[in-house]
Design brief:
22 strands, 331 residues, mainly beta, eight-stranded antiparallel beta barrel
């Protein structure tokens, strides 16, 4: 079947943030102090009013917005961050975008032990939603815009990963991506794309007995590295496919011939085998990827690459340390 390519939708270009803050020893009186009235809310029209207030630790967050009667969404003006005991301004985050709502969500979005906050940006078809995330900076004691992108983001504190999930084509296509955070940057480590199975005769989407769409896994897009491999020197050799998602080389999968599921691989470390920077050429490197099976490291793949070309692959089995040489059939 034809593979449907479902790239991650970038939404943050809609938003321009300007962040300013006042030193804790130089607090200011808030610029906006009037709350939206019940009458203004009912009439769906107001100008530069505080529409929501929420506590976050020793701070008070206030969302200031405006709305024209004919507009579908309100226009966010800024977030005022107040010192809770004194009600004085410690930071003002200017917002230049419209928003679907005016509620704050509080969560530790970057898993550093400090609560952050988000604002719902909007909802699309099939309940796909996106939000804007602001992270607490422990050095400046201010909130900074995260740059996190994706729809329906789920933050897993136990695995310290972020998962984005997007449905399209009336629910017949589903794409999900899993990221880890490196210096508060989202790095892709796993992804999966599903397409609805269809009746060969009619082309209609197939449903199971619970009236749920039946899916099959397809490729998401062209990978940074995508290789067909075969073991060598064994009585019965095996074949597999290995793919690394993108130039960040943080993750990918292996798919053994005859097996039903892909096995995730996560980037662990790298070593420089030959330094060629003085020649203006990419270094020859060894990349080490942990094979993750049922949540545990099952083995390690070692790739020798220069640029985006792989020259050698071997697998080190976790239970006994045995090394398997893998021949590159194609890439």
């Amino acid at each position: 079947m034809k593979h449907i390519k479902l790239p991650i939708v970038s939404l943050l270009f809609l938003l321009t943030f300007s962040v300013g803050y006042v030193n804790a020893q130089n607090k200011e009186i808030p610029l906006f102090t009037e709350f939206r009235t019940a009458e203004e809310d009912e009439n769906e029209e107001w100008n530069c009013k505080i529409t929501n207030e929420k506590e976050l630790g020793c701070y008070m967050l206030q969302l200031v917005s405006s709305k024209e009667k004919t507009a579908y969404n309100s226009q966010w003006v800024c977030v005022q961050v107040l010192d809770k005991p004194t009600r004085q301004l410690v930071q003002k985050i200017e917002l230049n975008t419209s928003g679907r709502g005016d509620s704050f969500d509080i969560e530790d979005y970057n898993f550093d032990g400090h609560d952050d906050f988000s604002l719902l940006g909007g909802c699309g078809t099939l309940d796909n939603f996106y939000s804007y995330y602001f992270l607490f900076d422990t050095e400046t004691k201010t909130f900074i815009e995260s740059g996190f992108e994706g729809t329906n983001l789920v933050f897993d504190g136990s695995s310290k990963t972020i998962t984005s999930r997007n449905r399209s084509r009336a629910g017949a296509s589903v794409a999900s991506q899993t990221y880890k955070l490196v210096d508060n940057q989202m790095i892709l480590i796993e992804q999966q794309c599903l397409e609805a199975m269809r009746d060969e005769a009619t082309g209609n989407v197939l449903f199971n007995e619970d009236n749920e769409i039946v899916f099959e896994e397809v490729d998401c897009h062209t990978h940074y590295l995508d290789m067909q491999l075969q073991s060598v020197g064994l009585t019965t050799n095996f074949k597999l496919r290995m793919a690394v998602y993108d130039e960040n080389i943080a993750g990918g999968f292996v798919f053994y011939k005859g097996q039903a599921e892909r096995i995730p691989i996560h980037y662990d470390r790298e070593e420089v085998v030959e330094d060629r920077s003085g020649e203006g050429r990419p270094n020859t490197r060894q990349l080490f990827y942990n094979e993750i099976y049922q949540g545990e490291v099952n083995g390690v793949y070692v790739l020798t690459i220069q640029g985006a070309v792989c020259y050698d692959v071997r697998y080190i089995r976790g239970k006994d340390g045995r090394t398997f040489d893998l021949k590159i059939i194609s890439q």
